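Hey team,

Sharing the Short-chain dehydrogenase/reductase SDR run so nobody has to redo it. Sequence (689 residues) first:
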Amino acid sequence: MRSMASTTSPRGIAAVVGVGPKLGLSIARKFAREGYTVAILARDQARLSRFADEIAREEKAQVFAIRIDCSDSRSIREAFEAVLSLGFVEVLVYNPCHGGQQPLIHPTNFTDIRIGSFEKSLAVSTVGAFHCAQQVIPGMVERGKGTILFTGCSVSLNGIAGFSELSCGKFALRALSQCMAREFQPLGIHVAHVIIDGVVGYPRRLILQYLQVNNFLFIHCVIYNAFPVPVGGGGLLLNVDGASTNGFAAGGGRVSTGLLMKPKLYQEKSHTTTTSPTATLSSTSAAPLLFFTIASVLSYAASLRSSKSSSSTSTTTNHRSTNSSTNKESSDLSVSAFRALSTEHIWTMEPPVRDAQWRSSYGLSYPVFASLVDQLKPHILQSNLSLPSDYAVAMVLSRLAHGHSAKTLASRYSLDPYLVSKITNMVTRLLATKLYPEFIKIPVGHRLLQIIHAFKELTSLPNMCGAIDGSPIKLNRIPDDQVQNPSTYRCRNGYPSVLLQVVADHRKIFWDVCVKAPGGTDDATHFRDSLLYNRLTSAEILRDSVITVRGHHVRPYIVGDWCYPLLSFLLTPFSSNGTGTLAQNSFDSSLMKGRSMVEQAIGLLKGRWRILQDLNVGLNHAPQTIVACCVLHNICQIAGEPEPPLWKDSKETGPPARALESEKSFYYFGESLRQAMADDLQDRQQRVR
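Structure output:
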């Protein structure tokens, strides 16, 4: 049946609403086989995800599983926001079950019908169809093309005793399709009402089921292009009904459809023939259906032969063909491949093998990944994302770990670049906001004492609790239309960047992160603009665990290099070249041991999350992406993940920072404190000797 669809233009999105294990799944599979990106929608998200994986694996297609409740207008709106984010919806198939439940196949006494059930049947059959159609019609009108197919049944033609609940909704659905067909036909949009009678069968009725499924593609691709059939009153409605189609209807294939054709086609025909519209219909309607039936049977037979042939030659083909590395990466990054790797059986793998696989792909081990997904999933579900939460997180981690652009990642994951960017922005925003307070915390209490003790073991200096440093994060580019002065983003090394400021402890875990300045800003200015500076100057933080050193009250402090001003809570070296006294040089050496922790932490950060080596996100999203990587860095350090090779930044040299007039009191106390600590360190070292 591939020949029935045009191949002159790229496929759009085929959205199938109401995907169960029979007809809905088969329709979705058929459109996927024809090259469409398919969005499948239903109430059961778990079952829907299995269907999506099955179709993606077997048809090598791109399939998205999106939850929808057709009786809830809000659910429909949110679901189609996700669908429309994938691209242009070229085909909408509306195929929900009666009332969102099992198909109604047994009659119900009128007096036994509950009003709630009746209202829900109307809501699903008609109101839901109305809402879904309204979501996609604007895009179709804008492009002048598109198809909307509503699944109906014969009770939409004639009421049947015992089926009042079903018939009312289906009658209304048929009326809706006819009204829409007449309204949107002149705009190039095809609206059809496809009648499928009975419960879709299993293998014993496989050919008839095959015809049912192909009917949807046939109507979309062929009928309104090749077989326009006029009817009375100047309308463009095709009712394939009655005795002439009984053979086809046995397979579930009656059609009530609006046809895409020029109105003058009927007018010309009515002037050139004396045949009545009814006679015209009865004499011509069988032709397209006969053609379709023959084509479907032949296609079905060909597909069976093809599948047998492919299975018998698969071994030979596998030996003879070698996929390119790009294709291999694409298959490895597909939803089905991800699912195969992330099933519960992963816990039966050898942990080193399992975790090596995950670190190679996503930057961290599987247990850490699973824990991360658990923390992000509640927030991701609120966004009604069209991808499974774990797959979305994995995709973003892959981008952050390898530094791929959205375009490159879109190609590997078979997604739209816009969708990759959207998901990246969402996940990094959640990391930078929801998880930041959990994993980047200013130390207090017992943790503060632990850090102080560890730094004293490392440096012999008391009450040190962190090391501060700034690092330029290279930007792939700066859009000229987003900044007034691009030169302010050029760091001393000459490349465009934004400035990252971090404070790290002895375990190379960040306890403060700030990204507020362009790369041309010096470290001292960035520090003074940060919230950390305001909290330190107001003694809001690091005010516990005060000790006395040679008569000086010493609160916990951080250390930095000469690019930062000397303050009572921020100690810096006496000199940069060892020109001080013996005590001062010894103090500088100890202080720089502590400061080396933040240098190593930044090296690990950029080595593990390589997107920070050449940041390829929009300038507006750069800060949250950087902060997100810092959160992930802390998660890895806390979990004890193996440390990657350190990324070495080019050395930046600048003039020593000086205290401002408003900082003089902090500076004088810091200067006196630093000398007292240098003398105390020298005395302790001499006593040891």
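The longest strand covers residues 464-474.

Ping me if you want the raw files.
A.
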